[in-house]
Write a structure and sequence with these properties.
By secondary structure, the protein is mostly helical. It has helices spanning 9-12, 26-38, 66-78, 84-89, 105-159, and strands at residues 53-56, 99-102.
Length: 160
Amino acid sequence: ALFDTTVQPADLVPTEEDVIARRKTLMTLMKEYEKSQTGSASEPPPEGKAFHRRTWKGMRNKEVGAVSLFAMVQRLEEDAGVTGKGMLAEASEELTEEEESNDTANHAAVIRMRDRAYNQYRSHFVLQTEKLVREYKSVLREEQRWRSNWNTLVQSLQDS
C-alpha cells in the first residue's frame, strides 16, 4: 500500500498503452468559455510565484476578553431583558489586521474554518456568560430570601 502512491522506475518506462486524458465536463467548459468571453479569466501568477496572493479579512476585534466580559456582565445586571443573542447581534464592526496569503482552495478552507470556529466560540462565550450571570442572580436571590427568613425567625424567637 505504501508504494501505491510513489512513482517507481517501472512507471516511467514507455509502454504501448495510450494514456487517456480525463475529459472536462460540460459545466467546466461552459464556465471557462464564459470567463474567456467576459475577460475575467485569471492571469498567470506573478513571476517566480506558484500562486496569486490574496488579502483575507481580519476577525472581529475586542469581542472576547476581560473588557468585553465585564461590559457584558454589567449590561446583563442592569437590564434583565438583554439576552446573549441580542448582544451577539450588536457585534463590533472593528476588524483586526487583514491577513495576506496564497489564493488557494486550501487557504480559503482554513479561513472559512477559522471564521466558523471563532463564531462558535463567540456564541458559546456569550451564552455561557449570560447563563452564569443568571445563575448568580438566582443564587443571590435565594441567599437574600434565606437571610430574610433567618432574620424573621430570630426576631420571632427574641419576641417570644
